[in-house]
Amino acid sequence: MAEKYTVLGAGHGGKAMAAHLALMGADVALWNRTFEHIAIMKKRGGIELESAEGGPHGFGKLSLVTSDIEQAIAHAQVIMVVLPSSAHADVAKAAAPFLKDGQIVILHPGRTLGALEFAKVIRDVGCTADVTVAEAETFIYASRADGPAQARIFRIKEAVPLAALPSSRNELVLDAIQHAYPQFIDGVDVLHTGLNNMGAIFHPALTLLNAGWIEHTHGDYQFYIDGVTPSVARVLEVLDRERVTVASSLGIRARTSLEWLKLAYDTDGVDLHEAIQNQPGYYGIKAPTTLNHRYLFEDVPMSMVPMASLGKRFGVSVLGMESIIKLGSIIHRTDYWRRGRTVERLGLEQWSVSELTRFVQEGVIE
Fold it and tell me: Is 203 noted as a catalytic residue in this protein?
């Protein structure tokens, strides 16, 4: 059982996790690249946590609050990376010289191919430590920051799939964090967690297809309820079908969006439009206030690009995904194919399905 944790990232999610772990009795360090962002937490020695409906609350005392990555990595057995997935490669490079045998690094979440990217980066910069990299399918908390040293948890998910790289170490990782997080369950392997990433389907397309409304109203409408019209839902269904087909090309039976809505929210519908309209939890959720939002700058290159790249590598038509990636690139005046997690950037372009599968399951390169 892990007792010493380091949380990398002091945004709303990182603060919530660090405070909650501390309240559960763990020895917790919190790292952030910019010291000014954590100065008040360092001065106070921790984070005040509030929760809805009798959840965890109180003052989470932290053992270490630092912007020194070497100190932060040396502190812990388990390192929780709670940062946008677009920062995973940079933090891997920064942490690599200080990682030690036996440490566990968990990405919260990995998005798609996150653990593969993190492991490749630390190897490429010369890290030879026997480190286990793992990823969660989604973030366990719905949370926000209430102030410079305050966090609030609205909800803790009841079951979150998690997979290690290789998956033969899943049990090792789950055992290490089970005392603090019994909610994490075996996610099979990192291809399963990455290809069941529903944000890749819902977030970019829904944002781009409502771009005019977002810019005109600054997000003053219900993102899912108003934004998912029948036509928008048909686009989401095509993207979802492409994702499921990409997974199938790798021998994976991915959940469809309709199955996921049933599993996560017990919501039904004859099609995706009806199912979303039937989901009470989506009522009241406002749209992003700007197009400069993680639904595009994170979910396009780190979620949709790797899915589409795997599809192109293994002969799946991903014209819908390519269209959304192109639209996002045009609106943000960047090339998300170049910046994203492609099979070429991850060194997988020559691998067969069996080679990739064996690597994520056993850590063996044939």
Answer: yes
pLDDT of 76-130, one tens digit each?
999 999 999 999 999 999 999 999 999 999 999 999 999 999 999 999 999 999 9
Tell which residue, 9, 31, 14, 20, has the closest CA to residue 56: 20
> Pick the catalytic residue: 75, 203, 240, 273?
203
Q: Where are the alpha helices (DSSP H) in 65-185?
A: 69-75, 88-95, 114-124, 170-177
Catalytic hit among 27, 189, 240, 299: 299
Contact 50, 43 (CB under 8 A): no
Strand partners, 134: 106, 164
Please enumerate in sequence order all residues whose Cβ is within 8 A of that of 36, keeping only pairs 6 or more positions apart, or say none.
Answer: none
When computed from its CA atoms, the radius of gyration of the chain, rounded to whole angstroms, is 20
Task: Give how far Cα 190 sits from Cα of 14, 135, 152, Å.
Answer: 22, 7, 29
Q: Which domains does the chain have, with CATH numbers?
A: 4-194 (3.40.50.720), 198-349 (1.10.1040.10)
Residue 317 neighbours by CB distance under 10 Å: 12
Q: Which two tokens stand for residue 178?
A: 């089970």
Higher pLDDT, 279 or 361: 361
pTM for the complete prediction? 0.94
Is 57 a residue of the active site? no
Model confidence pLDDT, tens digit, residues 337-360? 999 999 999 999 999 999 999 999
